[in-house]
């Protein structure tokens, strides 16, 4: 085990023998760190925090800190982080709360750039990119392969669907559907098209992307249709596409309402 002599590690913390811990890092009781991780200088990892394999924890991060919730009273809540994440300098990720999931979850293969924040009870999927200073409020759900632009703030309880692309300096107060490009703040939030480049890079077929664009035109570009009418029409005209079904179901299951306002098309 490669642990710098200035690191402060509780004797009850569990650190895999292959993990490296840099100067002045602090790892407290209850922390478990898997193989081949790198904990950079001055990182702080605390609480009931479980970290998987091959993660890089940047300098001056605060991982597993208590939630910023006035109702929290030192209950034993958790943070669980998967594998192969790059968690850059000054990132903060907080544990869950008893009133939420009791656990904050971060998947695998994510890039959390400098100064990003993940609040209590969030569920972040896999291969997500959060650019510098992007912030998630409590209880936010982020699907796989979402990209969140820098300085973006996401209101608590918002859901962001898989493969969505969020422009920088946005402010999200409603759910963002999967597969779309979106930018804007609160009542100026706009969906500007299907994230076709991201979908193509992820291996989706031309036919699947074509069907999603067809669904987009029905749902977002049909001002004469009520939302329920647009969703029914979408499933009637495109009944054989799993991605379209996922898009429609996202609207049906939303509890906060979903961004439907369309901006200038980028397609």
Q: Can you tag this structure with a few keywords?
A:
single chain; 267 residues; UDP N-Acetylglucosamine Acyltransferase, domain 1; Udp N-acetylglucosamine O-acyltransferase, Domain 2; 2 domains; eleven-stranded mixed β-sheet; 26% strand; elongated
What does this 3D model show about the protein?
- This protein has 267 residues and is an alpha/beta fold.
- The protein has 2 domains: 2-157, Hexapeptide repeat proteins (UDP N-Acetylglucosamine Acyltransferase, domain 1); 198-253, Udp N-acetylglucosamine O-acyltransferase, Domain 2, CATH 1.20.1180.
- It is 16% helix and 26% strand.
- It is built from 4 helices and 28 strands.
- The chain has helices spanning 196-201, 206-220, 227-237, 242-253, and strands at 2-3, 8-9, 14-15, 20-21, 26-27, 32-33, 38-39, 44-45, 48-51, 56-57, 62-65, 78-81, 86-87, 92-94, 103-106, 111-112, 117-118, 123-124, 129-130, 135-136, 141-142, 147-148, 153-154, 159-160, 165-166, 171-172, 180-183, 190-194.
- The strands form 3 sheets. Strands 1-4-7-10-13-16-19-22-25-27-28 form an 11-stranded mixed sheet. Strands 2-5-8-11-14-17-20-23-26 form a 9-stranded parallel sheet, with no helix packed on it.
- Strand 27 (180-183) and strand 28 (190-194) form a beta hairpin.
- The N and C termini lie far apart (52 Å).
- The mean pLDDT is 97.
């Amino acid at each position: 085990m490669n642990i710098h002599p200035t690191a402060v590690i509780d004797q009850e913390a569990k650190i895999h023998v292959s993990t490296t811990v840099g100067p002045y890092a602090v790892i407290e009781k209850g922390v478990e760190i898997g193989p081949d991780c790198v904990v950079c200088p001055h990182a702080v990892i605390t609480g009931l925090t479980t970290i998987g394999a091959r993660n890089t924890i940047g300098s001056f991060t605060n991982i597993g800190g208590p939630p910023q919730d006035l109702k929290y009273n030192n209950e034993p809540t958790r943070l669980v982080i998967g594998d192969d994440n790059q968690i850059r300098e000054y990132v903060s990720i907080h544990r869950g709360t008893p009133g939420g999931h009791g656990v904050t979850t971060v998947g695998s293969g994510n890039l959390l750039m400098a100064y990003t924040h993940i609040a209590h009870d969030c569920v972040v999927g896999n291969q997500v990119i959060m650019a510098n200073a992007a912030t998630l409020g409590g209880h936010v759900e982020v699907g796989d392969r979402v990209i969140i632009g820098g300085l973006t703030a996401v209101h608590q309880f918002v859901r962001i669907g898989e493969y969505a692309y969020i422009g920088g300096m946005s402010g999200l107060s409603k759910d963002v559907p999967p597969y779309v490009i979106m930018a804007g703040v609160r009542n100026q939030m706009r969906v500007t098209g299907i994230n076709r480049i991201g979908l193509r890079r992820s291996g989706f077929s031309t036919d699947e992307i074509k069907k999603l664009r067809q669904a987009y035109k029905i749902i977002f570009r049909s001002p004469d249709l009520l939302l329920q009418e647009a969703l029914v029409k979408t499933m009637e005209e495109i009944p054989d596409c799993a991605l379209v079904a996922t898009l429609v179901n996202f609207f049906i299951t939303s509890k906060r309402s979903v961004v439907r306002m369309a901006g200038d098309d980028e397609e």
